[in-house]
TrEMBL record:
It comes from the Bacteria. Its EC number is 3.1.3.-. This is HAD family hydrolase. It comes from Deinococcus antarcticus. InterPro entries: HAD-like_sf (IPR036412), HAD-SF_hydro_IA (IPR006439), HAD_sf (IPR023214), S-2-haloacid_dehalogenase (IPR051540).
């Protein structure tokens, strides 16, 4: 193994006060009878849409948008790393491994995460790549950014389908992190150090 990729939320960090502002905007559009694109959640994560741009596309009124924007501010202010994240990343870097983040997320969630993480070798955000996990394009882009072949990379994440099955289908190794329960490969990031 030459590199380790991590999912962001649910793996490295958590949102301790979830408000789901994008879902609020989508639900408001549904309530108003707006016709939504096929998989609107995937659309949001595969493009650099701000909350206000999404609300505009879905014809959501200003008052509902302002409420969702306040909730977005609350949500990103509550982002925190899991207790073992920094020490695990530093130990893996000390072993000479390249590290990266590969995550499905809406654009406003990347910058707050970058503020709390140490510098890593690569950051692959679905909204920049234009593909979401489990699509192979995002894993291919991650391997290219790390300068590694897929067989040299381990993907660690909390979603069996997106992080594990998607990574394996793209030729990477994968470990399923389940912080609650013992049905995954890992229950904590520091188990990577054993």
């Amino acid at each position: 193994m030459k590199a380790v990729l991590f999912d962001a939320y649910g793996t490295l960090a958590s949102i301790t006060d979830p408000r789901r502002p994008y879902r609020q905007v989508i639900n408001e559009a549904r309530r108003r009878g707006t016709e939504l694109p096929g998989d609107v959640a995937s659309h949001v994560m595969a493009s650099p849409l701000t909350l206000s741009e999404l609300a505009s596309q879905l014809h959501v009124p200003t008052e509902a948008l302002h409420h969702a924007e306040r909730d977005l501010e609350t949500e990103v202010a509550s982002i925190t790393l899991y207790p073992e994240t920094l020490a695990t990343l530093e130990a893996l870097q000390a072993r000479g491994l390249k590290l990266g983040v590969c995550s499905n997320l809406a654009a406003p969630y990347a910058a707050p995460l970058l503020k709390v993480l140490p510098p890593l070798d690569a950051y692959l955000w679905s909204f920049e790549v234009g593909a979401i996990k489990p699509q192979p394009q995002i894993f291919e882009a991650a391997c290219q950014a790390l300068g590694c072949s897929p067989v040299e990379v381990l993907m660690v994440g909390d979603s069996l389908q997106a992080d594990v099955d998607g990574a394996r289908a793209a030729g990477l190794h994968a470990a399923w992190l389940t912080r609650e329960g013992d049905h995954g490969d890992l229950q904590s990031l520091d188990e990577l150090l054993q």
